[in-house]
Amino acid sequence: MTRPTWRTVVSVVTYGLLGLAFVLGVIWFFWPGNSRWEPAVNSLTLVAGLSGIFVERLTAEAERRTEVLRAVADELHENTRLLNDERFSPDAPTSRQVYPRLVVSAVDLALVSGALGLHRDADLVGLLHRWRDTVHLFNRRLDLTEISTFSNTISAAELTAFHRALHRENSYFAATREMLQNLLAKIPQA
Amino acid sequence: MTEPVPVIRKLERALADDDFAWSLLLVGEDQTDKLATLTGDLRGPFSASGDGKQITSGFSYWGIGPTIAWANATNDPFYLVMKAGAESFLRHWRKLRPHVENGGFHLVSLGVGTGVKDRTILSDMRRENRDMYYIPVDMSSEMLRMGTLEPVRGARFPASQVLPVQLDFSIADNMEELGQMLGRLVGKDPILFTLTGNTLANFESDEELLSTLTRVLRPQDRLLLEVASTTRLDQETADAAADEYHQTRAFAEFVTSALRYNTDLRIDNEQVKFVGEVEDDDALLVKILWQNATDSEIRMGLPDHTDVVLPVGDTIRLYTTRKYSTARLKRLTEACKLTPVEAIQSQFRYTRRPNPFGLELLLLAPEAAGESAHSLADDIWAT
């Protein structure tokens, strides 16, 4: 947790310097005889102004990261909802159907935005890359399933085979769901 | 007073180290009944298209005459389909082998043929299961004796683990009895049933035969089915399929041998017709017929010393075979509730032009086997 501490230190120093400059300004107002008050107040205000620039930058960066993580978390919750859709249910009828697709737009944006820290979020970035690949392969499998099940020659037994293959314990569907749950557990709370 | 010891228990020791050519055979049917069936089939009504009098599958190989004729046909170097079939079987079997190599399978070969394919299967399977049994089943005792020589002498499969069974497996009751006997013999061990060499295609109703075989399959058992395949279904291709059999003299000798052996009919090879047609829009049917092409009726003497009159144009169907399309195979396996675990198909490559004909080897599991079946869906959703 280096960066929040660093941001806190810079903020405390900035507001401390401004507070001190204010106190000196008040004293200068009541006892204006001492000509050294002016440079003291001006110097403190100048240093506080400079450190304030860092405070603003660090705060904006943190807010951007929080927004990105919130969007990713929302998208993952949406994907959880999609995987729980009744068309993916083991009790769904074994008829041919068009399945909903998982989405990765927020994950794509998070990866290209640069909002996630190079060192701090390295593990999370790796997980998001793997999740992105998994979703693409999952959606491709849904494409293949639909192409096969919507062909003219499909039999009831083959439709049942697709239903069985989708809900098998070690199927790609189960692996995708498990990966989604792991990823949700690893997303930092915004 | 001690109990008498059953002869079967003493037989193994009695035959050990005896170099006389003994062979053991378990006979399941009264052969008189078979002769009556053959005679009955030859008394069918008049038909100019081969649908009256006939020699049904199994009887084509029944007796020493047809067996020798079959052996000659298989050794004929001009019978290209037979040679190509033997080669493609090796390639296909290597791909299917992993599914049945482990697990302690026994082999039940339905329609033993020359025994060459069984030799390949046995030599591979025995490497993993030294205690396996080999049970060839055929209607013809002569075919059984000839067919088992190949695995026993060629692949050194122990004769003490071979039990040839003489039985017509196309009869549902026979197959049921065989299934029960096998269950008592091997217990819960899985059995690999094989029906190779396009034998399925020789039966009048292939679906009925496949369904009869399926009924004895337990969930752990598998059926290895080899059939001739076609990628085209039109009259021209059907004629080409008929020609394929017509080209070999030894094959013509074989198809007429059952008639020569069991009747007094004088057969001129010119009277043998090879007729190809498209059957149910999903298979090619080839009927090999003898036809009375003379100007007068012929009297044919039957084994029971009675005569049957063959009017001008009358036919006797000698042999039936088919070439299957993928759609027909799918229909058959679905109708019999069989799931393809693996299916490998290849085209014949001995002709200059692209050939629509080939062979397909399928490993089938009964529906009750459940998730062990492997399908396109499993491939798509595998991790």
From TrEMBL, chain A:
Annotated transmembrane regions: 12-31
Highest taxon of the lineage: Bacteria
Keyword terms: Membrane, Transmembrane, Transmembrane helix
Protein name: DUF4760 domain-containing protein
Species in which this protein is naturally found: Kribbella kalugense
Automatic annotation (TrEMBL), chain B:
Gene Ontology MF annotations: methyltransferase activity
Organism: Kribbella kalugense
Record's keyword annotation contains Methyltransferase: yes
Keyword Oxidoreductase: no
Alphabetized Gene3D superfamilies for the sequence: Vaccinia Virus protein VP39 (3.40.50.150)
Keywords, ordered alphabetically: Methyltransferase, Transferase
Residues annotated as domain Histidine-specific methyltransferase SAM-dependent: 70-345
PANTHER family referenced in this protein's UniProt entry, alphabetically: ERGOTHIONEINE BIOSYNTHESIS PROTEIN 1 (PTHR43397:SF1)
Protein name: Putative SAM-dependent methyltransferase
Domain of life: Bacteria
GO BP annotation list: methylation
